[in-house]
Amino acid sequence: MMTFWDELAEQGFSVQDLHEGQNKTICPQCSPQRKNKSDPCLSINIDHDGAQWRCHHCDWEGNVWRNKMSSPFKQKTKKKSPPAVPKLQAPSDGVISWFAQRKISQETVELAGVESGTAYIGGRQENAIAFVHKDSDGKTINVKFRTKDKKFTQIKDGERLPYLWNMINRDNDELIITEGEVDCLSLIEAGFSNVVSVPDGASDKKLQWIDDLQAEMESFKRIVLLTDGDAVGIAMRNELARRLGRHRCWRVEWPEGCKDPNDVLVGYGVEKLVEFVKAAEPWPLKALHETKSFADEAFALLHGEVKQGSSTGIKAMDFNYRIRPGELTIISGAPGVGKSEFLDQICLNMAKEHEWRFAVCSFENPVDEHINKLAAKYVRKPAWHVQSGEKMNSAEWKEACEFIQNRFYWIRSEDEAPTVEWCLQNASACVQRYPNVRGLVLDPYNEFEHRRPSGWTETEYVSQMLASLKRWAATNECSIFLVAHPAKLRRNADGTFPVPEPYDIAGSANFYNKADNILIVERDFTEGSNDIRIHVKKIRFKQSGRVGTVDLKYEYVDGTYRSPEV
User: Fold this and answer.
1) Same domain, 525 and 479
2) What's the predicted TM-score (pTM) here?
3) Residue 487 sits in the same domain as residue 426
4) For residues 59 and 159, what is the distance between their CA atoms, to the nearest angstrom?
């Protein structure tokens, strides 16, 4: 009988080179025909369910499942049609002259394969500079047009890979990344090699190419980020560093009056540009700082100028609890009080008001039901049948669903409860793949599989587990929201549960000791009441709020929480 690994071998994979988890390898379909036959262009993930793969070069996709009864083998191959490349010409005298004004020589222009062409930009045909994007095999995959007055367009269906990626020497452990093609050519003019430009300009949200080139990017030990010095350029630089790994990133602050490498080249000349690039500073790391790095923050604290956390979107909570990336917030409460629903409200508000995105590992609801609960809060109408009130219509549901799918990513393990470590691994992949993921939901802690090492007490295990959560939150600049049930509570005489204290959380007193913030949800179950109380039991940093109690109202129909005065 053919085994799982036999089936992978039948697809052409070298199984001795594969392991459980995420792999990068050559593609059995296209690598033998490629110029760079050793390029690990295919991603394959192997877990307890089976294997799924996709080639980032030819788009071959497929899967092999371990359980044939529940998941029969399927595979598909998508033929990627090459983009239609317009007719181009050698750079015109006007193009050469324009680059000369930018202190970029004809030799550099020709070396980079710049051409001339016409393109429809803004509803009219324009003569434009043509920056030809090629893949590692030298095949044209995109053409980006730029007019002299800085209007841009790209050909239809062009692939998004960095400009001049085809000229990269992978034996060189340094890579320079610029924001635009002209800046890229400016660095080449100054004598630098291994220089590329991001494919979509100043956008911190169009970075799919990082995932597509994950294996190739791992070979570079030093990445110098030379984006523009304006707000959007700095935002993209920060996101690039976060996705590529700050430990290997360097940055440059441009001189006054210059916002990019070409400004420096034009204003100060080649020698000054070289000087600035070679003086690039390593990206500050959380574990390694000079005292001067904290001077401004210390002075701000002296004068009460502290960075406040972000509002939860519930006005009544702003004084007591605000959210800051890198913190661990634990939410607890008696059974049935709505801990998960309350957290859903906070996450939805953060997505709306601050454009946060969330990785969600939740055992409380199937994903489809969870989506409808979020949709109800978004639309302020129920997604299910109600005796009174208006149910959301299809158009409203579609709008809500589109919003949710661009803000929430689901970490699921259908067959068994995953470990916390497994969840953090997948959350890391989520942060790397999607921009602006700032929150991780773990709901609830009690449902995770906990593999306590032999000889460890529960207190020791919980302490180490919470420490790993906090390290992950700090490293990825994400807030972690952990729902943790209290130990078994004795009911009051009237059948209700008492309000638990932080030390009542099942497992260990370390939940209180290690958490940055602790919120206890209390609900009034008296008939006709919609009163909710949030007991803020711990706030580690005053920038995030202060201990106290917040009164809220809960709307049963749509599951929303609001301030009493609203």
Assistant:
1) yes
2) 0.53
3) yes
4) 12
Distance CA(242)–CA(213), nearest Å, equals 16
CA distance 179 to 184: 8
* Separation of alpha carbons 290 and 296, rounded Å: 12
**What is the 8-class DSSP label of residue 82?**
P
Rounded distance, CA 73 to CA 6, Å? Answer: 13
Q: Say which amino acid occupies 421.
A: E
At residue 195, the pLDDT reads 96
**What confidence score (pLDDT) does residue 456 get?**
85
Q: How far is CA 151 from CA 127, 154, 158, 183, 266, in A?
A: 11, 11, 18, 16, 21
pLDDT digits (tens, 9 = 90+) for 507-533: 777 888 899 999 999 999 888 899 999
Give the type of residue at 361: C
If we measure between CA atoms, which residue out of 58, 120, 129 comes closest to residue 89? 129
- Which run of H or E residues covers position 177? strand 174-178
Listed as ranges, residues in the chain with pLDDT below 50 are: 69-79
The reply to whether 488 and 438 lie within a common domain is yes
Classify residue 211 as exposed, middle or buried by CB count within 10 Å of its CB (0-12, 13-18, 19+).
middle
Considering just the CA atoms, what is the radius of gyration of the chain in Å?
A: 27
Whether residue 141 is found in the same domain as residue 70 = no
Q: For residue 336, what are the domain limits?
A: 315-358+418-562
* CA distance linking residue 515 with residue 325, whole number of Å: 14
Which residues, including other chains, have CB under 8 Å from residue 143's CB and lie 6 or more apart? 85, 86, 88, 117, 130, 131, 132, 133, 154, 155, 158
The answer for 354, left when phi > 0, alpha when psi is -120 to 50, beta otherwise, is alpha
pLDDT given at position 115: 93
Q: Using CA atoms, how far apart are residues 194 and 192, in angstroms rounded to an integer? A: 7
Residue 128's DSSP bridge partners are 117
Write the pLDDT tens digit of every residue in 363-402: 888 899 999 999 999 999 988 766 556 788 999 999 999 9
Instruction: Provide the pLDDT for residue 303.
Output: 61
Q: What pLDDT, on a 0 to 100 scale, did the predictor assign at position 263?
A: 95
CA–CA distance, 422 with 247 (Å, rounded to integer) = 23
Identity of the residue numbered 546: R
Q: How far apart are CA 164 and CA 169, in angstroms?
A: 11
